[in-house]
Amino acid sequence: MIAIIDYGMGNLRSVQKAFERLGVEAVITSERATVERAEKIVLPGVGAIADMIAELKATGLVDTIVKTIESDKPFLGICLGFQALFEYSEENGGTQCLGLFPGEVKRFPDSPEYVVPHMGWNDLTFHQTNIPIYRDLKPSDYVYFVHSYYVAPSDPTLVATTTNYDNVDFCSSIARGAVFGVQFHPEKSQDVGLRILKNFAEL
Asked: What is the DSSP string of the chain?
């Protein structure tokens, strides 16, 4: 069973529906016991980072997320759920995040040539080999992004992929052990996204 963490906002049902389409049991929950019992954890994300962190603290799920990552149980952070894993975000005037990995979340610079948020299809440049969730993906495969902020890890060995937007080569995903974070939305990335979620479910 996969637990999709419910913090009161975000695209929870669309993530659950993507797993259901694959025939994978996935439950939306804010119950610590259910999250701890799950075989794999997904922290999805749409919304404001300050609200997300506040809700995770209010539900007592911060410690559960930390223990999950420290135990190397398969974990997937999506978009805001990826950004939340780092130390600090520029969003909402500056927000302390979960601090599980070193680095910060920055806003794309204003530009007359590019629109912020970065919204649409883009490709991935791979910086690690044999990343389990990207099994059978090709360099020509595209995924779907919707975000104004991007992660800048302090540890370059975390970076699994980068993507270019607004002349910024930003970290579009990380991988360490069984822990993964992706800036794009696999649940909105059609067949490529389903392949990524299937690979995660099969870990």
From this structure: -EEEE--S-SSHHHHHHHHHHTT--EEEE--HHHHHH-SEEEE---S-HHHHHHHHHHTTHHHHHHHHHHTT--EEEETHHHHTTSSEESGGG-EE---SSSEEEEEPPP-SSS-SSEEEEEE-EE-SSS-GGGTT--TT-EEEEEESEEEEES-GGGEEEEEEETTEEEEEEEEETTEEEESS-GGGSHHHHHHHHHHHHT-
